[in-house]
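S.,

Sequence below, as promised.
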Amino acid sequence: MVYSSKTETSYDENGIIIGKASYLWNIYLYKWYGTTKDTFGFDDYGNKTMTASYRWNTAEESWFGSNKTEKTFSADGNLIAEVRYSWDYSSRDWTNFYKTENTTGDNGELISTHLNWNAATSDWENFDQEIKKWGVKGLLELHIDLKWDAGSNRWNYIQKLENKYDNDSNQILLSHYWWSNDSNRWNGTMKIEKEFASDDQNRVTLHINIH
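The prediction came back faster than expected:
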């Protein structure tokens, strides 16, 4: 009998998989060589808070990182922050790469701020931001994109999308705007209006594109 491959799986005290590593048998050296490895972490509420993937470095016969993500959730399961890491080959360890922070605005909108890691200053730097708002039926009504201006130390508007729906959740209006720094206001670029038949099939009876 000749070995071919094997997979090692590890579990936490609750029986949840927290690690899995795959190996191939080297028929010439008579030893196992790794191929891929994944590890996972969970919080007390069962949310997956960490995922890390590795690949086998044959020359050093050890695992090297491919990608890693850590997430933080609120008690009610909402994502508060997500950090992505890259592998530093010199230190043989993970290093910060990209982060998203989620907060709630005064009107219930979701504000997602994206930051890049500056290795020179060892600090996070603002990159861009998204503002989203959903209606009572969970349909997206507003989406605003902003970009960080390090020179003026402020967020600048980029573009905006507005959606409206009828009582059957059909989208009846989509409006797109670009922000004008010259006039300091939103300029409309596109609008789509739709009307639907009042039957069970929700057929489109009117479709208007305005540019």
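The chain has a mean pLDDT of 93.

Coffee later?
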